[in-house]
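Deliverable D2.4 — example input (structure tokens):
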């Protein structure tokens, strides 16, 4: 099927079979290999991209469902999170990092819109407090085999402007 997507701000035409995942369309048809394939079944978050600004697992999405949508992959990301991940050792092998960063961007947008998480004390509160527990809960769909979780949480706090006094990105 012929479909058109906007990927990282550029209109792209694709000819894909209906059963092709968005992940495979990005990696194999468009050569955007920054988005990683881990489990290929929705369990690890390595394939997280943004669709119209919302985070999705690209391995669970069919490319044809995203006709006309704006997809952002790590290749199209310019965000303070990237420097923060480096500064706080939020990555080791780096395999999970593109998905972590796309997921964190989507997650911060959810927080900005006041969306509660499973550990939000008072979901009725308009302003959601983003603490370590909440970040860990909201990022729990993104696994890291290297266990860089402490650095990931610190990087997200820094990018969200809630780094604790005395924390140093150096
Ligand atoms: S590859 Fe998509 S969630 Fe693991
Ligand atoms: S940095 Fe290696 S899997 Fe996360």
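Example output (designed residues):
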């Amino acid at each position: 099927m012929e479909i058109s997507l906007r990927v990282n701000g550029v209109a792209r035409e694709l000819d894909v079979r209906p059963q092709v995942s968005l992940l495979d369309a990005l990696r194999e048809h468009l050569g955007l290999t920054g988005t990683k394939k881990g489990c290929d079944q929705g369990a690890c978050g390595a394939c997280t991209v943004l669709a119209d600004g919302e985070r999705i697992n690209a391995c669970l999405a069919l490319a044809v469902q995203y006709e006309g949508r704006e997809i952002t992959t790590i290749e199209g990301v310019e965000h303070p999170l990237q420097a923060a991940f480096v500064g706080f050792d939020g990555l080791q092998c780096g395999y999970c990092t593109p998905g972590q960063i796309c997921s964190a961007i989507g997650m911060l947008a959810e927080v900005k819109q006041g969306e509660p998480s499973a550990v939000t004390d008072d979901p009725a509160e308009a302003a959601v407090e983003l603490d370590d527990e909440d970040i860990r809960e909201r990022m729990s769909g993104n696994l890291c085999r290297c266990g860089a979780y402490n650095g990931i949480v610190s990087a997200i706090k820094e990018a969200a402007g809630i780094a604790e006094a005395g924390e140093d990105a150096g």
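The CA atoms of residues 43 and 72 lie 20 Å apart.
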